[in-house]
Structure formats: structure tokens, C-alpha cells
Known about the structure:
The protein is α/β, with parallel strands linked by helices. It has a five-stranded parallel β-sheet, with helices on both faces. It is globular. The protein is built from 13 helices and ten strands. The site of 6-O-phosphono-alpha-D-glucopyranose (G6P) has 16 residues, from helix 4. Residues 59-62, 106-108, 111, 114, 158-160, 361, 363-365 line the site of 6-O-phosphono-alpha-D-glucopyranose. Its main location: cytoplasm. It catalyses: D-fructose 6-phosphate + L-glutamine = D-glucosamine 6-phosphate + L-glutamate. GO terms for molecular function: glutamine-fructose-6-phosphate transaminase (isomerizing) activity.
Amino acid sequence: ASLELGPYNHFMQKEIHEQPKAIADTAEVLIDDAFHPEIFGEKAAEVFNDIHSIKILACGTSFYAGLTAKYWLESIAKIPCDVEIASEFRYRDVIADPKQLIVTISQSGETLDTMEALKYAHSLGQTHSLSICNVMESALPRESELVFYTRAGAEIGVASTKAFTTQLVALFGLSVTLGILKGHVDAAKQQSYLEQLRQLPGSIQHALNLEPQIVLWAQQFAKKSDALFLGRGIHYPVALEGALKLKEITYIHAEAYPAGELKHGPLALVDENMPVVVIAPHDKLLDKVKANMQEVSARGGELFVFADLDSNFTESEGVHVIRTPRHVGDLSPILHTIPVQLLSYHAALARGTDVDKPRNLAKSVTVE
Ligand code: G6P
């Protein structure tokens, strides 16, 4: 291994393990300045007071960060939020809304479609924009009115890991900041959000400690040709990210579904050869998820469940369970991303694919 990799075999593995620090570094300013609007730029308070909705534009994994943020923005800040793939938005007849904040999310800050989508919004008279970005002074922050830099450090692996989880921290911070400003977050709630952020790096470390158990699952996945990922509510984007990671680096065909949609199609694919990963921590939709899992079991599907202690799952024939650290409230999707990253990484190792440079893919997509 090179000097840069230290004890790790791949950049992806190193970057997965850097997440407690990357997250702590990104959360630092949010905690120290207690969600003060200026964290997002000098003009942020003025801009935030002038908007009534949010449109998030991004590609790839960054798009999934946006899908997760929608739940926080609506539940914490009570602001309507749409999330759209940049390459779709830029070619649509968009109805401009100058009171809408355009939020672009990008690790590199150079993704062409995201940049063009932002320019299109600006050309329609939507001037309010915020860039959430990991690379200082890249194109997207330079083009935006406001900016928040994630502090993930350089990300080399093509499949995004620490950039994604730090984007989520930034978006959670944005949601709480807006919630305070709009009068939906009182002092007690603000304290509890700060506490959740303080505890997050420790919980992430606990999730990383699940690696030996996940390796055993990964060895089984490596032999499969398809996989299904299920989640509901705020854990649905985690399922999407899990399926994307698996596709990108193992070349196993994977799909993610909100578990409630099973009956409308994907259930037809389920048999004993289809591993079904379920993100099932104890949240308000858990009972619904359990009912969906029954439907899988009844068709002979093999379930691989990530769930915390409070979810109350036990292993049985065809049901494997890895116990995730106790769920950290609103930040649970960040925590539950770690096991799906590790699952893909170890399945890729078992298959012998080029983890850091998967075929046909690029780190930064600066062409159409
Ligand atoms: C490429 C990368 C992905 C990334 C996406 C968006 O497809 O392989 O990891 O999520 O681009 O990139 P961005 O830099 O805009 O976040």
C-alpha cells in the first residue's frame, strides 16, 4: 500500500473509515455557532427570510443526499422542498419562482449538469442559491449566492462515501437553521439537535465496528447477480444509496424500492435467489416495514436486515439481522449509510473488481 493509504487497501475503505472525523469536522461550525445563518454566507439571513420553498438539484449520490434532506426540511423547518436530478431539470419548462432557494449539492463542484441546471434557474430569475460543496472555490460555489463547504477532505474513490455523509450533516444543519429562523425550532429542540450532532461521530464509529459481521454477508452477496434494497420514509434514500454503491463497484444489478411499493411490481422478482436488504431501524414506519418483510419471506426471499435493538428482530430461517447502534433520532439515515457502504466494499473485494476505479465511471462528470 502507498504512503497515502496507510493501513488501508483502497481509498474507498480509507474514506469509509474517515467518516467519524469528516463528520465531526463538518459539524464543528454548526455546533460552535449553534446554527447561526451566517454559517451559510454573509447574506444568508436575508436570503432565508425571503424564501418560502426549496428546490434541490444534484446528480448521483449527491441527489440521494437531497432526497434525504427533503424529510428534514419539511419536518424540522416546515419548508416545502422538491428534489430533482439536475440533468432533468435543465431541459424542462420550469415555472420560475423567485422566492424559492435553489440548493445544489456536489462533492466536486464541477458536475456539468448540476452547473447548467443552476445557470438555467438563474436565467429564469431565480437568484437565491446555495451550494453545498466539498471543493473550495470550484465552479458551483463560485456561481452561488451562498455556500457551505463540507469538510470531508479529498475524496479519491469514484464511489462517493464520506462526501455523502458530510453533505447530509450540512443539509441537517440547513434544516435546523431554517427551522430556527422560521420559528419552528424552540430552544429545547435546538439543544437536542446540537446534542445529536455531537454524538454522531461516536455512533458512526460504532457502525464501523460492524465490519466483521458485514464481511460475512458480503461473501454471500458476491455470488449473487441481483439484489433488492428496501426502506421507507427517511430510510428509503439509504436503500437507494445502498443499491447504487453495489451497482457501481460490484457490477451486481441492484434496485431500491420504498417497501410499500413492493406489491406494485418488485415482489414478482423475489425468490430464493434474490437477497433483500432492509433498512429497518426503529422509526415510525417500522411496523409497516415488518409487514412488507413478511411478504418477502412468504415468497422464499432471503432477508438481510439492518436494525437497531429497539426494532426487536431475531434471526430465523431466511432472516439475517445485523444490529446497528441505537438510532440517533433524526440523524439515523447518516448512521445507516455506513453498513451499506461496507457491504458493497466487501462484496467488491470478494468479486475482485477495481473498487476505487470502477469500469465506465468517472469521479467527476464534466461532460454531458
Ligand atoms: C459521479 C461520481 C459520483 C457522484 C456524482 C455526482 O457519478 O462517480 O460518486 O455522486 O458524479 O458528483 P458530484 O461531484 O456533483 O457530487
